[in-house]
Design brief:
heterodimer; A: 432 residues; mainly alpha; three-stranded mixed sheet; two-stranded antiparallel sheet; 16 helices; globular; B: 418 residues; 0% strand
Chain lengths: 432, 418
């Protein structure tokens, strides 16, 4: 009987999965058809937009490339066809893995098609060129902050503590970072300060949720509120009367000799501030530590089944403390990195990036590599939705801004692939 | 010692040192205010200078203490006079019989602020009681405000119909917005915290889209400002427009909401299902409660109340929505989370908590005006209070309260691990 039950259950489950994959395929097909007909066939045949690859910053310019003029109509028709082909592939084959990755690819292709169409000659905007390199460089700053945030989330949630205070750690890091950087003109000290403050906020979260077993989500939300209020308070009370605490310096770019001269890739990957390189190293370190070391095994065991972990002698509370503090420090560093690309601290200028990072972490299935991919998709779409303003796109940019959030909701609801959090995520643990 | 002896404090001393919910809440308030005082002390140059005098000799000590008390006292006094009543003005009015509107303005402002706050917090509290964390109440209130403002400004009819229908439009807007996380949670298992968090941003974007798009934007405006509601759709001031007191008929709406919530939670079978589901989901399932239905309905109620709060906010104050509607420190939906926690999710508790937080918020403006201490201190104090309320064990340890049972004081939602 129970066997029968199980088999029917798995059958209905797989049916539901089929239906879900088909829904996604249909969604992708709609996007593809929209691209094909509106952006492709809707463009007059003579329209073109040119791609340029030389960054605006002349000082460390890579080897110069000419600009590429693309016929908008044909490009967008092809892009539309690719999206439709991807949709058809998902619909027919119903792959077990990688549906989310395909959906991400579709989202990016759609954005590219939109960009071409927006920048077409004879369109409403006077600009008919797209500077690929500066778009990539611009969005890399957003992506970097999201990566820091979602890595912080990975560290905490893999050990079973929900860190919803990422936004607060961003605020704290940006605030303290701006003060230190303004005083010392040295971003190394600012980074240390951000690490310290982020870790401290993580410690508060850990203290309340581990020692006193308060609700982690409530404590996290209250911490964000408190840090938001505190930063606004200190901004008026300290930074306004003493403006030399908040002069707003931008972190200098450290060009890697040789590599930074590569067109497109050079400015994006090899001519960035130190924070960018630190981020890349950190992704590798966190991945390695979580999945290839003994410590990582402990962390994942604690996040999945704390009782079992405790029974083999792992100190659950200690592992969680360590991870939440380390995760907080990473997010604090992310706050400094954000400040280093934006300059002067302003109240509320992290504008919810911490929550987008949380979304990226979920989209990336609680894995560092997934978090990076998700951060790239989200970061690109956030940056582009602001950037499209210059092209006077007829769709309100506010509608475009909804996309990262709607995609996240779809992901969490299991409409696009399935995500499974660590089993003990957010659950208080009591020693026996 | 018998059980009775431990659960029923006998002397006054016992009563003040045992950890009943009210005692813990009061101590949490004290801790929160103390935290605020510390923040004032370490960030006010005058106070720091006075303490620096200690390096030159002990006789600076009384002076430093004096300056500290003056500054902190002035801040908290201005919060009080700015939100409740100014004693001097009160006596003046009482003796001469003049200037009542002026004297009552702080109280009126506090009530104006508290009215939508009570409504939205009751909604959040009902969700909490069902074990659901509605962190998206702010977004639901925004949508409710837009829906109400749109109905109140773009449809024209007599007051008798217009006002109730405007309020209903707000409720409907909030319900639509609350239905999404409810349905997703019930049918796909999506965690409501993530969905509602994300939905907040979707609604902000929608707000900016709405106030900048042609049918809804204020005619002849290019700024982010919506149409003004008809006089027939607004909640007019209780004491007429001449007195300048802004407190509106919205207080009756709030009172009705509190009554409704009390009835729903304590007297209806649906409310019983809510509370059982919140207290013990598996017991609820075992006793045949339809978990899906409970989740969806709880979110509909919660979202509907948030939407009502949004429309009450618009209809009793500005009469239009703009791009900054309920954003930042005006985000009553976020304050509502803290209010609901402070009020322990009970309708009457929420009323007191909302009045307190409204007083802090309104008094904070007065504090900023008179002492120059930024009003954001109010937010900091509020969140500190709630941090302590959410951690009864810590309060118990700090004040060495007896009676170990803090289990029922602990507030909890569910994390997204399964």
């Amino acid at each position: 009987m129970s066997l029968l039950d199980n088999s029917t259950k798995s059958m209905t489950a797989s049916l539901a999965k089929n239906r879900r994959t088909r829904v996604i395929a249909a969604l992708m097909a709609v996007v593809g058809l929209f691209t094909f007909f509106v952006f492709g066939l809707g463009t007059q045949s003579g329209a073109h937009s040119s791609l340029s690859f030389n960054p605006l910053n002349v000082a460390s310019a890579p080897i110069s490339l000419g600009s590429l003029t693309m016929p908008v109509r044909w490009t967008d028709l092809v892009l539309g066809l690719i999206i439709i082909a991807l949709a058809a592939e998902v619909f027919v084959r119903q792959p077990r893995r990688g549906v989310m990755a395909r959906f991400g690819a579709v989202a990016i292709l759609f954005l590219i098609a939109l960009l071409f169409w927006a920048a077409r000659s004879g369109g409403p905007s006077f600009v008919s060129s797209v500077n690929v390199t500066s778009i990539l460089v611009g969005s890399s700053a957003t992506v970097m902050v999201l990566v820091f945030g979602s890595l912080s989330g990975v560290m905490c949630e893999r050990s079973g503590v929900v860190n919803i205070a990422i936004e607060g750690q961003f605020i704290g890091g940006a605030f303290l970072g701006s003060m230190i950087a303004s005083e010392t003109h040295n971003f190394f000290y600012a980074a240390i300060g951000g690490l310290f403050l982020g870790g401290l906020i993580g410690l508060v979260l850990a203290f309340f949720s581990l020692r006193y077993r308060s609700d982690q989500i409530i404590v996290g939300v209250v911490l964000v509120t408190m840090l938001g209020g505190l930063s606004s308070y200190l901004n008026l009370q300290v930074l306004t009367p003493f403006p030399n605490f908040n002069t707003g310096n931008l972190a200098p770019n450290l060009a890697i000799p040789g590599l930074s001269k590569i067109p497109i890739l050079g400015p994006v990957f090899f001519n960035q501030s130190g924070f960018f390189y630190v981020m890349i190293i950190l992704v590798a370190v966190v991945s390695f530590a979580l999945f290839k070391t003994r410590y990582g095994l402990h962390v994942r065991a604690v996040g999945e089944h704390p009782r079992a972990a405790a029974s083999v002698g792992i100190d659950v509370i200690r592992v969680r403390y360590v991870n939440v503090v380390l995760g907080g420090a990473i997010a604090g560093l992310g706050g400094v990195a954000f400040m280093a690309t934006q300059g002067q601290f302003q109240v509320g200028y992290t504008s919810g990036y911490g929550y987008i990072a949380l979304a990226a972490l979920i989209f990336g299935r609680w894995r560092p590599s997934g978090a990076v991919v998700a951060s790239i998709i989200f970061g690109l779409s956030v940056y582009l939705s602001y950037n499209l303003q210059t092209y006077q796109v007829p769709v309100s940019l506010y509608i475009l801004q909804m996309f990262p959030y709607l995609i996240t909701i779809a992901v969490v609801a299991g409409l696009i692939g399935r995500v499974r959090p660590p089993a003990a995520d957010g659950q208080p643990y009591q020693r026996d | 010692m018998s059980d009775v002896a431990t659960t029923q404090p006998q002397s006054l001393w016992d009563r003040y040192t045992s950890s009943s919910p009210i005692v813990v809440t009061v101590y949490a308030l004290i801790l929160g205010l103390a935290f605020g005082a510390i923040i004032i002390i370490v960030t006010t140059p005058a106070v720091l200078d006075a303490w620096r005098g200690l390096f030159s000799g002990w006789n600076a000590f009384p002076h430093a203490l004096n300056i500290t008390f003056n500054n902190v006292g002035a801040a908290y006094r201005s919060i009080f006079t700015g939100s409740v009543v100014d004693p001097q003005g009160f006596w003046h009015s009482l003796v001469t019989g003049k200037g009542w509107p002026n004297t009552l303005t702080p109280l009126s402002e506090t009530l104006t602020y508290a009215t939508p706050l009570v409504i939205v917090s009751v909604g959040v509290g009902i969700a909490f009681q069902t074990g659901l964390f509605n962190i998206g109440a702010n977004g639901q209130a925004v949508i409710g405000g837009i829906a109400g403002a749109a109905f109140g400004s773009m449809v024209h009819m007599p007051t008798v119909l217009h006002l109730p229908l405007t309020l209903l439009a707000g409720i409907a807007g909030g319900m639509v917005c609350g239905a999404v996380p409810g349905l997703l949670k019930a049918y796909t298992g999506a965690h409501e915290v993530i969905v509602t968090l994300m939905f907040n941003y979707v609604t902000y974007a929608f707000l900016l889209f709405a106030v900048l798009s042609t049918p809804f934007q204020q005619p002849g405006q290019s700024n982010d400002i919506g149409r003004t509601m008809d006089p027939s759709a607004v909640l007019s001031p209780l004491f007429g427009t001449k007195t300048g007191l802004r407190v509106s008929y919205g207080v009756f709406v709030a009172a009705a909401v509190v009554l409704f919530a009390w009835w729903l939670l304590n007297r209806s079978s649906l409310g019983f299902d809510f509370r059982v589901t919140g207290a013990n989901p598996s017991a609820a399932r075992a006793s045949g409660i339809n978990a899906r239905k409970v989740i969806v309905v709880a979110f509909l109620v919660s979202g509907g109340l948030a939407g009502l709060a949004g429309v009450v906010q618009v209809a009793s104050t500005t009469h239009y929505v703009d791009g900054g509607f309920l954003i930042g420190s005006a985000g009553i939906g976020f304050t509502a989370i803290t209010v609901a926690l402070l009020g322990r999710n009970k309708p009457m508790g929420i009323v007191w908590a909302a009045l307190l937080f409204a007083a802090l918020g309104v008094g904070g403006r007065n504090m900023q005006a008179t002492t120059g201490i930024p009003l954001d201190l109010a937010t900091v104090i509020q969140s500190a209070i709630v941090l302590f309320v959410a951690t009864p064990v810590l309060v118990k340890e700090i004040f060495r309260l007896r009676n170990v049972s803090t289990e029922r004081l602990q507030i909890s939602t569910t994390g997204w691990g399964s």
